[in-house]
Amino acid sequence: MPLTALVLSCTLKKSPAESSATLIGQEFLDALRDHDVIGELLRVVDHDVKFGVTTDEGDGDAWPRIREKMLGADILVIATPIWLGQPSSVAKMVLERLDAELGETDDEGRMSTYNKVAAVAVVGNEDGAHHVTAELLQALNDTGFSIAANGSTYWVGEAMKATDYQDLDPKPAKTVSTTQTAAANSAHLARLLSSQGYPPAST
Amino acid sequence: MPLTALVLSCTLKKSPAESSATLIGQEFLDALRDHDVIGELLRVVDHDVKFGVTTDEGDGDAWPRIREKMLGADILVIATPIWLGQPSSVAKMVLERLDAELGETDDEGRMSTYNKVAAVAVVGNEDGAHHVTAELLQALNDTGFSIAANGSTYWVGEAMKATDYQDLDPKPAKTVSTTQTAAANSAHLARLLSSQGYPPAST
Amino acid sequence: MPLTALVLSCTLKKSPAESSATLIGQEFLDALRDHDVIGELLRVVDHDVKFGVTTDEGDGDAWPRIREKMLGADILVIATPIWLGQPSSVAKMVLERLDAELGETDDEGRMSTYNKVAAVAVVGNEDGAHHVTAELLQALNDTGFSIAANGSTYWVGEAMKATDYQDLDPKPAKTVSTTQTAAANSAHLARLLSSQGYPPAST
Amino acid sequence: MPLTALVLSCTLKKSPAESSATLIGQEFLDALRDHDVIGELLRVVDHDVKFGVTTDEGDGDAWPRIREKMLGADILVIATPIWLGQPSSVAKMVLERLDAELGETDDEGRMSTYNKVAAVAVVGNEDGAHHVTAELLQALNDTGFSIAANGSTYWVGEAMKATDYQDLDPKPAKTVSTTQTAAANSAHLARLLSSQGYPPAST
C-alpha cells in the first residue's frame, strides 16, 4: 500500500514565479515516488495562511485545509529558501501553526503528528543550509515528527555568490544523491511507523 | 539634540490583543527616553507588510512606510516573542525586508543602515531568548547595524511553564535592569555614531 | 532481547564534581531501562578525548574506546549543560568526533551509525534548551542517527536565575514525564530499526 | 596612538599544521594594521586551556595568560573553522571562558570587556558561516563586547565540496573586501569607545 507525502514549499514568492525551494521540494517528492510514496506539493504563499499558533485562526485562514492534508500524510517535507542564513519567514509561519499540535493529543498523550516522518529540503544562493536544517528539525521533532537517518537535503553556492539552484543544469550530483538518500530513508521510517506506531506513554 | 528610535513589535497578534513582546518593546522605548532618545513603537502585524526581500514589494505593501521610519531613526529595536525556541515569523519577515539594504549603498559602499544601532528585546513563556537574540543580532549586523555592549534584554519563565511576561507584576528586577543597561548602551553608541560615523571603505 | 544505550555526559566538570547534565543523563538511562534498554553513562571529560574530526587522533586519544561503545549501542544520548545559550564545548567536541562517521560507510553507502537512534537531554540555570537541542539533533542526524518523536528532554529555570537542576527536589513533573516520553519513543524506534534497518541506497 | 587587537584562532589543529581559520585570522589582523591597529594572533590549541567557566581553572590552565592579552586589547577577533555547520569546540571553549567576565564588573556594574569591540572570521569547506557568526556575536555581545557594522567576514565553498580556504589562490575578492570592511569598521568603533566609553549604568 502506498504511503503519502505532503511537501510544503516555503518560498516567499507566489506562483507563477520560479522558485528554487519549490523545485527541490518537487525533486524530493519525485524521489519519494521511487519508494512507493505518492503525494503533492503545495506552495504556502499561494494560500492565505494567517500568522498564529492555533489550528484555525479564523477569518478565511487557509491553514485548516493544509492541516488536513498534513494529518492525512505519512511524510511531511518542508522545502525552504535561506535568507540571511536562516529559514524563510514562511517556513517559520508553518512551524508556528504546527505548534498547535502540542495541544492536540489523544487519550494516551500522543500528538496527531506521531508516527509521521518529517524531512527537510533547503536551497540558497550561499550558506545557511545546516542551520536552517537545525531550526526545522528541532521544531518538527518538538511537534511530534520522527526524523530518518540523513533526513535532509540541500544546495548552496560558494560564499557571497548569487547563483540560483533552479539555474543549475544538470543538478549537482551530490545534492541529487543526498535527496535520494533522504527520501529513501524517510520512506522506510514512515513505513515502519505506519504499521508499528509509538506505544501510549503509559505503557 | 535628541536621538530617535523605532521599536518594531513582532508579535503574531494584531491590536488590540495584549502582547508581551509589545510590552517589553515599550519598556525599552521608555528606558531610551531617560537617555534623550525619543521614538515610537509599531506593531508590524497591524500593517500589511508583504513577504519579500526588496524595499518595496508593491501591491499595497506597508513596508516602504515603515522603512522610512527606520531610515529616519538612530536606533532600531526588534521586540519579538519566542515560538518553538525561535524568533517569530513576523520578526523573520522584517529581517528579510531589511535584507534589501544590502543593495542600497552609497557611493562609498556604505549601507543606508550604517551608523544606526540595533537592539533586541525578547519574551516567551519559556526558553529561547539567547538563540532568538543570536538570530536577530547576526541578521541586523549583516544588514549594517552596530550592536552596543549587552545590547539585548529578555524574559522567559521556567521550562514548560505558561506564564506570560505581561502578567508579571512587578516586572522581574533582573529584566528591568537588563533593559535599562541595553537602552543606556545603545543610546551611547548611537550618539557616538551619529556624530562620528564609519569612514568610507576606501579610506 | 534487550537493547543497549550509551549516554555521554558533556559537562565541563570532571568527576567527582556534581553535575546536573550527568544527573539528567542518568535519569534518561533509568527511563530507558523501563523499556528493556540497558546501558551505561560516561562523563566525557573524565577521559582524554582529543580535539579532531577523525576516528582516532592518536597520542593517547580516548575517543576510539568511547567510539567502540557507541558502535555497540542502539541508542546514543547526549546530555549537555547550556553555556551562553549554547551546547557545551565538550558536546561540540563529541559531535566533531562523530563527524568522522561520514567517511565510515559500508559497501552500500550506509554509515556505521545507521539504524541507531540519538536522543538529547539538556539542563541549564536558565534559557537555551531548544537551541541546544537544535544544534545536537542536526549534527546527530547529519552523522547518521535517527530521531524518535519528541526525542529530547530538558530543564531550565526562569530568566537570569541561578538554580541548578541537581538542587531541585522533587524534580519538576513536566521534565520527568518529558524524559519518560523521550526514552519510550527512542526505545521503540531503536527496536524497529534494530530488526528492520534502512535498505541500501541503491535499492 | 595605535589600538591593539588579539586574534584567537580556534582551529582544532595544533601548530605547525596548516589552518584556514588561522589564515583568515591573520588576514584580519593584517587588515586592521591599515587602520593603525597592532596586535597578535594566538592559536588556542597550542596552549593548555582548560574547560570551564571561571577566569582561572588552575592546574596549569593557560587561559589566565590569554585573558591578560584579551584585557589589554581593544579588539578581539575570533577566527574559527566550521564543523557540522557550527563553531568549533575550541571556539566554544573560548566563549565559555569569556563567560566568567559576567562576574567581573567594576563598581558601576560594567564588565571588564566593555569598550572593547569583537569581530568574527569564519571559514569552512562548505556552509555554516552565518550561523557560526550568529553564535559568536551573541555570546560575545552577552559577555560585554560591542559589534561594529558588518563586523564579520567568511568564506565557504559550494555545498558538499571539500576545498580549503588556504588552498585558494588568489583569495576570493568578495571575502577580501568583506574582511577589509569588517576590520575598518571594527577599528573605527574601537577608537570611538577607547576615548568615549560607556557611562556607568546609574548615570
Summarize the structure.
The structure is a homotetramer of 203-residue chains. The first copy, chain A, has 203 residues and is an alpha/beta fold.
Describe the structure.
The structure is a homotetramer of 203-residue chains. The first copy, chain A, is of the alpha/beta class and 203 residues long. Chain A has a single domain (3-195), classed as Flavodoxin domain (Rossmann fold), CATH 3.40.50.360. In chain A, 35% of the residues lie in helices and 20% in strands. Chain A contains five helices and six strands. Chain A has helices spanning 20-33, 63-72, 89-98, 129-142, 173-195; strands at residues 3-9, 37-43, 75-83, 86-87, 117-126, 152-157. In chain A, strands 1, 2, 3, 4, 5 and 6 form a six-stranded mixed β-sheet that branches. In chain A, helix 1 packs across helix 5 (173-195). The first copy, chain A, is globular and about 50 Å long. Chain A starts with a strand and ends in an 8-residue tail after the last helix. The model of chain A has no long low-confidence stretch (mean pLDDT 96). Chains in contact: A-B, A-C, A-D, B-C, B-D, C-D. The A-C interface holds A 109, 111, 113-115, 130-131, 133-135, 137-138, 141-142, 144-152, 177, 180-181, 184-185, 188-189, 192-193, 196, 198-199, 201, 203 and C 109, 111, 113-115, 130-131, 133-135, 137-138, 141-142, 144-152, 177, 180-181, 184-185, 188-189, 192-193, 196, 198-199, 201, 203.
